[in-house]
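Input (structure):
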């Protein structure tokens, strides 16, 4: 008697960030097709953000499964592991970490470079741009119907929510929404720093530089291509700009406000506030409830920030990529999508709970004036 082969599941991944693209790449390496849908109009629709480090026990593990680890090392900047901490009011150096020769425990890479590395590894046409998800419908045992804002409807046997903090896929599993944690980043950019801002380039070095006074923090990161990003970190309500009668376009007025708030700081540090040429970008910090969990569904699951949004303390992208790798391997290694989801969530949810608990409230440490802890800070 001939058995009927198990049909290949139709897999839809929502979100073309590092997690979604990693999942698609590993699925394709195992001969499993997947389509990635992203709301952006194209790969160059927006700036991908600053720099980040990938760790040997999560991000690098995922890249190895994706067959991209060596290419990552060719792109990454080991020198970006340098870290300097300054005294806020005196401007003197308090701590200086220089990476050892050949150290690859946390090499830095621009988010855009990582995204391009993953994107270029996929079969052409894998990513469908300009698809903003509206909702997920259909019975839990499938097929699921994905409704996009432009009117397109797609059926899928497995829906993977890799769509970040404000995930639309999450709504099919959980009523949880991210909550503001009382801390905001204000991002400033410096371009062509070696020519236009040589003193800041020397001050920051090849990696990161930071200072804090217990109430506020400045965190500067070297990016590739002569760029530096500065994160002005403060404990404030989510609408702090509006309360000051300002919008994000009021660059000069924001600068005046910041100079007053940082008036006791060293002039060498205040340059990180005054010398940027463009506008500031307000980035309030949010996190999901701890723990965030849900009843396992046989056709829908989540990864990365959609599953376990946490403060930006160096783990977000790493966990998203590890989630993606483990989910893809589970799909490849199980007979049914439901079995794969259960196996994946059995590992992912406890790990996420542990990390959420560890980082719950830890963002306040960004404002601490204690001597730098290399395992605590990563504003990227």
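Output (sequence):
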């Amino acid at each position: 008697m001939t058995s009927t082969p198990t049909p290949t599941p139709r897999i839809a991944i929502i979100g073309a960030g590092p997690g979604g693209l990693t999942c698609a790449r590993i699925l394709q390496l195992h001969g499993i097709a997947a389509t990635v849908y992203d709301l952006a109009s194209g790969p160059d629709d927006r700036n991908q953000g600053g720099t980040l480090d990938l760790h040997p026990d999560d991000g690098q593990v995922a890249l190895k499964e994706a067959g991209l680890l060596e290419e990552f090392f060719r792109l990454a900047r080991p020198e970006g592991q340098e870290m300097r901490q300054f005294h806020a009011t005196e401007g003197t150096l308090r701590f200086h970490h220089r990476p050892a020769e050949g150290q690859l425990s946390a090499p830095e890479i621009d988010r855009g470079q990582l995204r391009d590395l993953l994107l270029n590894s996929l079969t052409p046409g894998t990513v469908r741009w300009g698809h903003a998800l509206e909702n997920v419908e259909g019975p839990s045992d499938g097929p699921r119907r994905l409704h996009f804002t432009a009117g397109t409807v797609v059926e899928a046997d497995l829906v993977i929510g890799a769509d970040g903090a404000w995930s639309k896929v999450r709504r099919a599993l959980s009523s949880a929404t991210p909550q503001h944690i009382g801390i905001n980043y204000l991002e400033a950019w410096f371009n062509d720093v070696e020519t236009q801002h040589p003193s800041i380039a020397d001050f920051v070095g090849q990696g990161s530089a930071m200072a804090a006074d217990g109430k506020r923090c400045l965190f500067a990161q070297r990016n590739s291509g002569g760029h530096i990003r500065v994160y002005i970190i403060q404990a404030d309500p989510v609408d702090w700009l509006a309360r000051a009668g300002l919008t994000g376009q009021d660059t000069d007025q924001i600068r005046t406000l910041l100079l007053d708030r940082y008036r006791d700081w060293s002039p060498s540090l205040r340059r990180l506030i005054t010398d940027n040429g463009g506008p500031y970008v307000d980035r309030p910090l949010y996190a999901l409830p701890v723990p965030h969990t849900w009843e396992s569904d046989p056709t829908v699951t989540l990864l990365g920030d959609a599953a376990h949004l946490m403060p930006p303390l160096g783990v977000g992208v790493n966990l998203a990529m590890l989630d993606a790798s483990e989910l893809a391997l589970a799909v490849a290694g199980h007979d049914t999508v439901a079995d794969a989801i259960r196996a994946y969530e059995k590992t992912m949810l406890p790990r996420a709970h542990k990390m959420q608990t560890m980082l719950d409230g830890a963002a306040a440490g960004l404002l601490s004036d204690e001597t730098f802890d290399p395992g605590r800070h990563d504003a990227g």
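Notes: Residues 180-286 form a domain with the D-Amino Acid Oxidase; Chain A, domain 2 fold (CATH 3.30.9.30). The chain has two domains: 11-81+104-177+288-361, 180-286.
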